[in-house]
Structures are given as structure tokens and as C-alpha cells.
Amino acid sequence: MILYLHGFRSSPASFKARKMAEYLQQTGRAGEYLCPQLPASPLLAIQLIESLLSTYPANEITLIGSSLGGYYATWLAEQYGCKAVLLNPAVKPPRDLEKYVGVTTAYHSDELFEFKSEYVAQLRAYEVAAISRPERYFLIAATGDEVLDWREMTAHYPGAKQIIIDGSDHGMADFVDYLDPILAFCDAK
Q1: pLDDT tens digits for range 56-66
Q2: 2-187 CATH
Q3: Which of 164, 161, 36, 42 is nearest to 93 (CA)?
Q4: Are 170 and 145 in contact (CB under 8 A)?
Q5: Looking at the whole model, is its pTM more than 0.90?
Q6: DSSP secondary structure letters along 104-137
């Protein structure tokens, strides 16, 4: 099972989530893919993800987390022992998202998106100071990420499989180039 966790203010309609779904559809594996709409509340997002995780053995799950979804995927991988692919993951979202407290809209719709101050405290509860088993992680980070620092990402996942993209951007416009290695990591036992 591949469980895709989108980023802050994002959705299953994001470019990477759609490309992953299309790729799995083309390879006859659409039934192995889930990408839920995550609530703005980190607590509620984690509860939703945990409810999905509870229906599969940990060794049959790979989390793919983009940006804030990477932060969640890291905490969940540590808790459940599953694998995680991290796409330009947020490493310090309590610090980075504090300035976004308030009401705005989601990226892929005009739907209101409220990020409350208590969500910053909720994020702190899911911090992973150091990963325990680097072999469970696959980091893909872009040096051209205009939102997050790729050097923080690489430092946070020492010993993990890593692809550092020279250039690109936070949204990973070249994401389709990495679908084969991502799926190979998901399938590896």
C-alpha cells in the first residue's frame, strides 16, 4: 500500500499526487494507492492517517510525504516501522508555519483554509529529533526549493537513501523523472 501525504494547504489534486496516481493507474496498481485530503489540524491529520494505517501491516505500507506530509510521514514511520519516501520534506514546520496562522485559501481550490495558532503546538508533538533506521527512508530534495532548505533535509536524514536534484523547485516540476526509483523503493523488501 502506498499512502501519499500532501503538503500544507495542498490536496490530492496536487501535481505530485496526481502524477503518482496516474503512474500507478498505468502500471495496473491503482488499488494500492491512497491519498486522503488531510485536515489543517496536525492532530486530526495524524488521526486520519493512523486510521488508514491500522488496516495494513507496517511492512506492506510505504508513506510518500511531500513538504508537511514528509514531516508527518517521518513521525509515522518512526511510530509504525513502515518505510517513507520524503519529497522536499518540512523538517521544522513549527518554525516555518507559525507565520501562516490565519485564514487563507487552499492551493487547488477557493476553499477556505484556516491554520490556527494551536496547530503550531500540535506540530511540535510530532517532531522527530533523529531517525532511528535510515534504511526505511528515501529522501528526494531539490536544491532549487524556494520554500524549504534542502541542506536541512539532507542533514535530518543521515544515512538514508538520498537523491539531491540540482535545481528544480518546491513542487518538483520534474517529479515524473523519479517515479521509477520511488516505486522500486516502495517494492523493496
Answers
A1: 998 999 999 99
A2: 3.40.50.1820
A3: 42
A4: yes
A5: yes
A6: EE-TTSS-EEEE-HHHHHHHHTT--SS-S-GGGE
